[in-house]
Amino acid sequence: MADGALPVLDVKDLKTVFQTRKGEVHAVNSVSFDVRPGELLGVVGESGSGKSVTMMSLIGLLPMPPAEVRDGEVLFDGKDLLKIDPNALRDVRGGDIGFIFQDPMTSLNPVFNVGFQIMEPLRKHMGMTKEKARNRAVELLELVGIPDAARRLKDYPHQFSGGMRQRVMIAIALACDPKVLIADEPTTALDVTIQAQILELVKDLREKLGMAIIWITHDLGVIAGIADRVMVMYGGQVVEQAPVKELFTNPQHPYTRALLKTIPNVHGEREAKLNVIEGQPPILGAPPAACPFRDRCEYRFERCDRENPYRRPIGHQHDVACFYEFEDKSAGDANAA
Prior knowledge:
It is built from 12 helices and 12 strands. By secondary structure, the chain is α/β, with parallel strands linked by helices. The protein is globular and about 65 Å long.
């Protein structure tokens, strides 16, 4: 990643709401971030923090209704993806922005062989003939490490293992040489050995192809090994963002600190209990008017109950949405005054 390069994707003040029988759910609340060519941005947080909904909002993958992208900009190649024609958005989604889903078995169509599923975007978005698309499909399967690729084009998803199905999903996402690849917890359903193979594959592909990658996960251990920068989400908003080494050595949001403490310590005592974050993420019926983490935060003070912290810069590429300052333990009292 070139320092100072312009963002390939720039998201500003994104807001997404779901209409339910019990009223509105504000799932994404003023989320802003960018990703640059060749960069891997890790997006972390518990289930319900807004990670997947944010990324699906960008490229029109949410069912509308009940979802509604209420505000914001998603700038890609000089265009706002929230305002372009649906057909143009489909072209972007299938071509310039690839998406890898969490569960390859439900994402792949069981009634079509994998060759057809890889060739379809090549013919639709790149105008390839059937023969050229087939040759490219073989190259893609070889690229993602599937042996005997030409023969396996005729196989159906159920004939592949979980790890191999995920490799097929990666091949489909890479088919049209996307500028941005969004991976939504692509290793969650796989065992640890296959997870490690997929992570190594992604690192190799990133070096070869130079694409930007957004990697969604709840696993900070995964992020530590692959990301350049990390965005921590909670309550549908970004609470901290920093380069990966900075985040692990100098976390500044209480939620980030709590997440880091939940990582198992392989050198600890066998009888030691795993750390957990007590409580549950909020379901927001309105845009948060106070800190969404306050009910679970050991550093909470009066100001947290009446204001939602704004993101403020605290270092190079490091910002945090919190009133408490860990360098100065008296900051809470000062801010509350």
